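Structure first, sequence second, as always.
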């Protein structure tokens, strides 16, 4: 095993660079993350408009982060699955379905949170 000659700080900076590269790839290649980003912008605007509390902001930001992060993991799983087995395969399809299901669960949770936060403010 070889050791990196770069310092801990240099390695962390490189890691951040790779993470940013990954986020850019995600936003350029996935329509679903673009839709989620638009929704995130809309609920952020709603948060300012309805002057939501600090606690509501914390929960809203956490849900936005959760949904978008899970979408990134789902996309990574899809890329790995397609790389390993490019042609249609029932096992790979099941893996992809489960990963998409995780995004669905996170998204439903985010919708429930949005209803809890905004329903009383709108009605």
């Amino acid at each position: 095993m070889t050791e990196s000659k770069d310092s801990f700080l240099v390695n962390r900076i490189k890691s951040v660079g790779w993470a940013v590269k990954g986020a850019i790839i995600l936003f350029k290649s996935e329509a679903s993350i673009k839709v989620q980003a638009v929704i995130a912008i809309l609920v952020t605007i709603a948060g300012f408009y309805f002057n939501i509390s600090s606690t509501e902001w914390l929960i809203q930001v956490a849900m936005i982060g959760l949904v978008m992060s899970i979408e990134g993991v789902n996309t990574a799983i899809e890329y790995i699955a397609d790389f390993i087995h490019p042609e249609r395969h029932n096992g790979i399809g099941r893996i992809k379905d489960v990963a998409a299901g995780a995004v669905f669960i996170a998204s439903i949770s985010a919708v429930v949170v949005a209803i809890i936060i905004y329903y009383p403010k709108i009605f």
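Margin note: The chain has a mean pLDDT of 94.
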